[in-house]
Amino acid sequence: MESLQHQALDNPLAFGASAAAITAALVFGAWIYRDYTAWIDFGTGGTSANFSGYLRITKFRLLRAFSGDDLKDASSLSPDGLSYLPKQLPRREGQLPAIIERTLPQRQYPAKTPLDKAAYDRLHALPKKYAEQLNDALKLDKSVTEGRTTDAIYALPAHRHGAHDRVLGDEIAHVHPAENSLHVWLTEADTYKVVSAGWGERFPLASLGMVNAGWTFVYAPRSMEEVAVVEEIFKAGIGHLTGKRP
Ligand SMILES: *[C@@H]1O[C@H](CO)[C@@H](O)[C@H](O)[C@H]1NC(C)=O
């Protein structure tokens, strides 16, 4: 204490600068700690829930922050090529949802008003419904891209049609249990349609060339009518991976 006082008296400017540096380090440390615990508490998706996982997602977050790439902008995608969606998707109404800034897992902030039970049940039953209906071409299993925390549908290898991605494998789609959004693998033309009509956005690692550009984040539906649109998008994913749209 005494030596600090001496220092302050001897060189007030340097003392002020080091006090500011210490304060900044403490604030930054507290911010990291809060962000880290929030990430663990929310669920880390497919990333290991420890500090090395956190460093990994933080690296992507920084890369993205400096890239200036807006995931809600479809203009980097090609609108041409195969499509399994209806010609014209209706425009999603209202504001686009706010996305959690940590980049991974790609999630929106949960809605303040919960989805009504019938719509919620229909949404979360989609993987099982199509795995049963098309059991010769699809199977239900835990999602590998989500670290096996939720159900996903997969194309059976014999029915796999074209698309190939090292990370995604045969996974077509899954629904996120905490906030009702989805990831669906679409053709690039269909990702273009979904993003342009405001139903979803691009995947952050796609523009870094790490995952196929058709891996699409679909916003949580807010009503039964929106679940119906989301189901069309889900079916388009099945069409993309199997060549047959249900
Ligand atoms: C984090 O978890 C992964 C997978 O469980 C493991 O391979 C890695 O060694 C862990 N890292 C640390 C720092 O604990």
From TrEMBL:
Keywords associated with the record: Membrane, Transmembrane, Transmembrane helix
Segments passing through the bilayer: 12-33
Claim: Membrane is one of the keywords in the record: yes
Calcium found in the keyword field: no
Classification via InterPro entries: Luciferase, Luciferase_dom
Superkingdom of the organism of origin: Eukaryota
Residues annotated as domain Luciferase: 169-236
Protein name from the UniProt record: Luciferase domain-containing protein
Organism: Zasmidium cellare
